[in-house]
Amino acid sequence: MSFASDCKEELCKIENKRACCLKAECYGLLLFSKCFSLRDAQMICENSAVARRITEAAAVSAGVYAEMRAQLHRKNAGAYAIAIPGEDARRQMVTSFGHTGREISLRIRMENLLKDCCTAAFLRGVFLVCGTVTDPQKEYHLEFVTPYLHLAEDLVAVLQGVKAAQFSPSVARRKNSYIVYLKESGAIEDFLTLIGAVNGAMELMQIKMYKETYNNLNRVSNCETANLDKTFSAASRQIAAIALISDKVGLDELPEDLREAALLRLHNPEMSLREMSERLSISRSGVNHRLRRILEYAETLGSPEEEISAQHEKGKE
């Protein structure tokens, strides 16, 4: 099962103990389905638990019978078609929530969401019937799909009015539908918690923590690798310069402080400046200054890069 399906299965196990919450969830389920009309219409639902939730809520809260039929057509195999048979039943359904069925534009009637608990239940119903959430292993994205612009705008207003969280939803057009979506992981966690998908929210948080830890470790590893490459490159030039001095004039020609640093670098090519400073009992800047003087002296004798090339050629022989 997908992450979205797991969340919906969890939500379908929630029992609405208050009549107002049951009605609000039923309102969200029906209003955002394709059945909320006086016309004979049906919606296709791929989740059996959600399909049963719609039919049960319609019967208990709206007092109408919702017909659920398994789809055998190849395109919708495994899904369920839900419809409200009978014009009188459909009229009773829409009027029970304060609608007439003859509205020019379908809107959310806020009198059905008088309490905070009702808003959470309503949003749960909306998510069950037209919402989905992407697997957080891939990306953070939660969206609702509706064919009506005003309904999408009203949903944005409801989300922005939630007191328990701060949602900043966006609206986009996709073919003949309007998408209301959340992209921030924190907002998605808060939404899933609000509507009752606590396990889904916890799983998302755990995945987020794992990703952040992994990314931090990866950044540290990349930084350390870059530092090692930088250290190795610098050490190679320094060793080549020391070898050049040794071949041309001998290390005894160097002042004692430079000769000490040269021998330490020559015998410890992997050693960092910090480690060298501890061995020489001077500061890192002091070590760096001595090595820079060695390079400058070597340049008066020749090119350290030529020495590196010569060493490579000797190695091939």
Q: Separation of termini? A: 63 Å
Q: How much of the residues is beta strand, in percent?
A: 5-15%
Total domain count: 2
Instruction: Please report the total strand number as a whole number.
Output: 7
Helical fraction equals: 55-70%
CATH C-level name of the largest domain: Alpha Beta
Q: CATH H level of the largest domain: which superfamily?
A: Homing endonucleases
Query: Rg, please?
Result: 35 Å
Tell me, briefly, the overall form.
Answer: rod-shaped
Fill in the CATH topology of the largest domain: Endonuclease I-creI
Query: How many DSSP helices?
Result: 12
What CATH architecture of the largest domain do you see?
Roll
Major sheet attributes: 4 strands, antiparallel
Give the overall pLDDT as a whole number: 85
**Computed structural class:** alpha+beta
Low-pLDDT stretches: none
Strand order of the largest sheet: 4-5-7-6
Order of helices and strands: HHEHEEHHEEHEEHHHHHH
